[in-house]
Amino acid sequence: MTDLKSVEARRPGAQDVPVLLGAPYAFYPGDDRDDSIDLLELARLFYRERRLITVIAAAFTLISLIPALTLPPRYRAEALLVPVTPDGNENTSTLIGQLGGIAALVGGYVGTGKDRSAESIATLRSRSLAIDFIRTQNLKPQLFPTDWNDVTREWRDPAHVPTDLQAYQTFDSQVRTIVVDRQSGMVSLQIEWRDPVLAAAWANRLVTAVNQRRREEAISEAQRSIKYAREQLAETSSIETQQSLYRLIEAQTKTIALANARHEYAFRVIDPAVPPETPIRPRRIAIIGLGLVVGLLTAITVVLLRRAFMRERALMEPAP
Q1: Which residues in 87-175 belong to E strands, given as ranges?
Q2: Do residues 127 and 164 make contact, with C-beta atoms less than 8 angstroms apart?
Q3: CA-CA distance, 144 to 203, in Å (whole number)?
Q4: For 233-266, how does the pLDDT look when each residue is reduced to its tens digit (9 = 90+)?
Q5: Whole-number Å distance between alpha carbons of 67 and 101
Q6: Residues 281 and 73 sit within 8 Å (Cβ to Cβ)
Q7: In terms of Cα–Cα distance, which of 145, 185, 143, 184 is closest to 166?
Q8: Which domains, and CATH codes, for the chain?
Q9: Residue 161 reports pLDDT greater than 90
Q10: pTM
């Protein structure tokens, strides 16, 4: 095998091939490329390619106009609430604590104010409340407009009618949002929808629905507690237990009276929802601005790649 160094030595005008780490290192005398970034050169390059950059940026901006102008507007109605703690819980809890084993049977709906607030918030977030609300307000046709025929007032495909669970998932992920401020205890119920009037109406109706459910639950539990306490009165001969049962019946009767008289049983409305005037989505200016930025970045990338390709092609061409 002919040695590379000897071949280079026989070539006219050849230079000695340096040996690095025991191996010959070949280099090309004519390749004097400088890969460093010259900002002035880049500025000149972008100026020369300003038409291409303008065309690409304008194209992306025009494309961004399509979603910015065609996406339907979404409005957000917000109701500000504060959980309500019914009166008399402390006294009722003390009475139940005096009843020993009977407490687990008659005290099903008694707890601290913090527990009651957590239950009210959990009810507002619950799947069962949302499904009942969707049914009573007949929201399925509006949640699935493409599957509903407004002319015939029927589903387009009777074999694939959206289920209650699908309606709940759509309502919970795209329509209803609940934000709880842990410091102040305030609850924000937000409804997003295409119609601002409907968004505000649904928010206020949902607050009414959760208050009504909690009120009915309180009355039902109190009635069961009274019924069981009266049954225990007929079976016990202990004067102390009878007195505690009578006081418990009195407290539960007061609970029923308060529940019937108090309209805002679970949540007190601090600021009811009103129809919003401006949509929250789509943010047209932001979408157009994003399209312009993406267009500029794409144009710059195309120009740099084009420059690198042209330089490589020039170096690969044989010298005249």
Answers
A1: 148-149, 154-155
A2: no
A3: 19
A4: 888 888 888 888 888 888 889 889 988 888 899 9
A5: 65
A6: yes
A7: 143
A8: 38-71+283-311 (no CATH), 74-271 (3.30.1890)
A9: yes
A10: 0.69
Cα–Cα distance for residue pair 21/27, rounded to 1 Å: 16
Listed in order, strand segments (DSSP E) in the chain are 19-20, 23-24, 75-83, 148-149, 154-155, 176-180, 187-193, 267-271
**Which one has a higher pLDDT value, 265 or 4?**
265
User: What are 181's two structure tokens?
Assistant: 């401020």
Which of 66-75, 112-121, 143-152, 184-193 comes out lowest in average pLDDT? 112-121
Retrieve residue 226's tokens: 């009274």
Q: How far apart are CA 86 and CA 268, in angstroms?
A: 11
Separation of alpha carbons 163 and 149, rounded Å: 17
pLDDT for residue 1: 45
Identify the DSSP state of 265: S
Label residue 318 exposed, middle or buried (CB < 10 Å: 0-12, 13-18, 19+). exposed
Residue 307 predicted with pLDDT over 70 = yes
At 110, the amino acid letter reads V
What is the rounded distance in angstroms from the CA atom of residue 91 to the CA atom of residue 17?
A: 100
Grouping H, G, I as helix, E, B as strand and the rest as coil, residue 26 is coil
Tokens standing for 235?
């079976």
- Tell me how far apart the alpha carbons of residues 119 and 125 are, in angstroms, rounded to a whole number: 10
Asked if pLDDT for residue 110 goes beyond 50, the answer is no
How far apart (Å, rounded) are the C-alpha atoms in residues 75 and 273? 12
